[in-house]
Structure formats: C-alpha cells, structure tokens
Amino acid sequence: MKTSLFSIVLIGIIALCSSCREDVDASALEVYDGPMNMAINIHLVQSDSAIVRSDIRAPKQLEFANGNIEFPEGIEIQFFEKDGTLSTTLRADRGYLLKQENTYKGEGNVQVRNLIKDQKLQSEELFWEPNKKRIYTEKFVTVQDGETLFNGTGLEADETFTNYSLKNPRDSRILVPGEGN
User: Fold this and answer.
1) Residues 125, 139 contacting (CB under 8 angstroms)
2) Tens digit of pLDDT for each residue in 143-179?
3) What region, left, alpha or beta, does residue 108 occupy, with left being phi > 0 and alpha being psi -120 to 50 degrees?
4) CATH numbers and ranges of domains, the chain
C-alpha cells in the first residue's frame, strides 16, 4: 500500500509539473546581435604629443558587443598638420570602425578633400587605417588634382591624401573652366 500510495503521489507531482510547463519559443532564445550602446552627436579628438592629429564627428554612433562601431547617419574626419592647420577632410554617408583591424570604413558618397594641395577624391567605399596612416579602396574612384580629372579602380594614399597612386587608371582629362567646383 505504501508503494502504491508513493507511486500515485509521484505520478501526481510529475503530472502537475509537466502540465504547468509552457512551450518556449525558440526565437526568444536567439542571441541578440544588435547595438549594445548608442551615442548622439559624438566628437572624438585624437592627438599625438598634445597636438591634434584628427577630429572625428558623427551624428549617431552604435556600438556592438564585438567592439565594432557603426555611424549610420554619416561620419566626418578632419586631419591636421603638425602646426595645427586643417589639411584634409573625409566625409561618408555611413561609417564603420572595424575594431579587430582598427580600420575605419566609409560607404556611400565618400569624399576626401586635401585643402592644401587642392585635391578631391570621390568613391563609394574607402578605408582609413590610423596606425598605418593610409587610406585605400578597391572601388572606382574619381580624383580631381587641380584642373585634371582622373578615373580609375583602386587607390592608395597617405591619410592626408597628399600623395596617392591609382591602381588601374581609366582615363583623365582637363576640366573646362567652371567645372568641378
């Protein structure tokens, strides 16, 4: 009798526990891979020996768990000479900081202007490696150097866009007066 009473109580407990259990939605268990932090109107100044070297601004920044950062509403980076003179600007419709590689990536309408040498670059994608002080792309680029316009695929330059090389130039031409401003 004790055994059967014990069996009935055990079966009752099992039935109660199993009947109260809810089915878990598998999608609720998926790992969240969206942004962990968000910042508005960011302004980051990078200096070397108390001399401003670059100034980064973006209206919105999203930071992810892996350390990558996205600038979905655009990014602007300014580069300065050792004497503090603004030499180059870089703008992109969207930007990313790839933390593992310590590389910035600009996408969309990417424009670089060297104010000192009157040079302009336009591309749909551009990378900046701060540690190597270089910018590069494998995409189509248009470079305006003074009154000459160059087109090509792929470019490598120093971060201030003072010295550059086109990898696969396609054509070049002299600008008509008033064009390209």
Assistant:
1) yes
2) 998 888 899 999 999 988 989 999 998 887 776 666 6
3) left
4) 36-174 (2.60.450.10)
